[in-house]
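Hi support team,

I've been running sequence recovery on a batch of backbones for a student project. Most finish fine, but this one hangs at about 90% for roughly twenty minutes before it completes. I'm not sure whether the input is malformed or the queue is just slow. I've pasted the structure tokens below so you can try to reproduce it. Let me know if you need the job ID as well.

Thanks,
M.K.
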């Protein structure tokens, strides 16, 4: 069943990218109308899609997936963006995209298991150490709303937001679990801190009001919103598949919930996914309304819902319903964002903050993992390769350096062990 669902996700998402209905990469979405409306050639679209997504698949999606034995959604949907845009824009192309997408999805899942099994037969099994890559992400992700506030409203307001998030985390860490009558509820301190930060960010953004002369986004891009609504059935299908896969714990929407699911903290993962979804409303909403191209996971609330019910049938049903509801509410979302331009403008701040935080957290996690594998030398290699990557003009995206170098250190540890130059701990 796992392979069937992941294969179906690969096939459907590749078709959606091929038909210009939905793409996962937020940077590719604004480019799609250029091709769909004849201002960009197919070759230019393919080259752009590959440039935007390939490095993140190899350097970010797959290494993070390996660290927890759960597929990070980026590893499959960024790949199907490339596959879908590569295939010809015809019925044959759609079929080809579906076949290649399905094979790619199944290959990712089977390959992930193969890699995990292969680790167990190495002289130095560094799989457990790889789990340290995601640990700082779980802890640090609560700070991203404060970074977004700082980017948009200045360092002082960012510091205030960070202090509020830190206070909320401290309180929930101290008083968890919370007793509600005879029922005890355990909430993730990091998830609650991130949720509190998001509320503060939205409060700052809501303070900016629309001017009387502003043009309505809903009226300006009404035809593009209509295009998305015409394809709602296809979006509901991919929503159902992603929801089912998330409930089966074979797919995760972000590194923080992935790491929490790998530890069995499902309710905390659901809360973290919900808080992250709040941040994606302006980002996904504005790009979808302006381009007529949606995202295959929508505003990402399907991950939170699927984890909350923790049942593949209900997760699939909710996934379909939530994406369909998002599509039909796009006009209302546009009107809301028009009234609060600060929230609309926060999309760029949120995306930048998430990228900045992931770069640092994954670098720290990679260094921790490398040092656990090869004490001392591992840290030297990670820090050295990170700085050399900067000197070389960043051929590897920053957020990929930590996970990739940790894997390289693991391979080096095995080579040194075979040469008798390193004795793995008992």
């Amino acid at each position: 069943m796992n392979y069937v669902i992941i294969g179906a996700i690969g096939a459907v998402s590749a078709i959606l990218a091929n038909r210009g209905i939905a793409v996962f990469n937020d940077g590719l979405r604004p480019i799609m109308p250029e091709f769909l409306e004849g201002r960009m050639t197919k070759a230019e679209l393919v080259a752009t899609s590959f440039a935007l997504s390939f490095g993140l698949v190899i350097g970010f999606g797959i290494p993070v997936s390996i660290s927890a034995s759960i597929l990070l959604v980026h590893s499959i949907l960024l790949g199907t963006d490339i596959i879908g845009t590569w295939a010809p824009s015809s019925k044959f192309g759609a079929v080809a995209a579906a076949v290649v997408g399905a094979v790619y999805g199944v290959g990712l899942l089977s390959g992930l298991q193969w890699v995990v099994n292969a680790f167990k037969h190495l002289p130095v099994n560094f799989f457990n150490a790889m789990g340290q890559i995601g640990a700082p992400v779980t802890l640090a992700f609560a700070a991203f709303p404060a970074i977004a506030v700082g980017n948009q409203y200045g360092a002082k307001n960012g510091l205030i937001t960070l202090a509020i998030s830190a206070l909320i985390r401290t309180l929930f860490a101290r008083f968890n679990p919370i007793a509600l009558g005879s029922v005890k509820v355990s909430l993730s301190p990091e998830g609650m801190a991130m949720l509190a930060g998001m509320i503060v960010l939205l409060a700052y953004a809501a303070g900016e009001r629309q001017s009387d002369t502003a043009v309505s986004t809903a009226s300006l891009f009404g035809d593009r919103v209509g295009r998305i609504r015409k394809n709602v059935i296809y979006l509901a299908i991919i929503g159902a598949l992603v929801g089912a896969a998330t409930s089966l714990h074979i797919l995760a929407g972000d590194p923080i919930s992935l790491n929490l699911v790998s530890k069995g903290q499902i309710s905390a993962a659901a809360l973290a996914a919900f808080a992250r979804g709040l941040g994606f409303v302006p980002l996904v909403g504005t790009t979808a309304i302006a381009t007529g191209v949606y995202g295959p996971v929508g505003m990402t609330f399907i991950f939170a819902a699927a984890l909350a019910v923790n049942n593949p049938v209900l997760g699939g049903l909710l996934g379909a319903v939530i994406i369909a509801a998002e599509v039909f509410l796009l006009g209302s979302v546009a009107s809301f964002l028009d009234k609060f331009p600060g929230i609309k403008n926060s999309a760029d701040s949120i995306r930048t903050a998430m990228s900045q935080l992931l770069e640092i957290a994954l670098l720290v996690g990679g260094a921790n993992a490398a040092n656990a594998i090869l004490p001392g030398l591992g840290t030297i290699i990670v820090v050295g390769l990170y700085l050399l990557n900067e000197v070389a003009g960043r051929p590897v995206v920053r957020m990929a350096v930590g996970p990739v170098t940790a894997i390289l250190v693991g391979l080096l540890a095995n080579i040194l062990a075979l040469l008798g130059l390193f004795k793995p701990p008992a």
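--
Follow-up from support: It reproduced on our side and the slowdown came from queue contention, not your input. The longest strand covers residues 178-180. No action needed from you.
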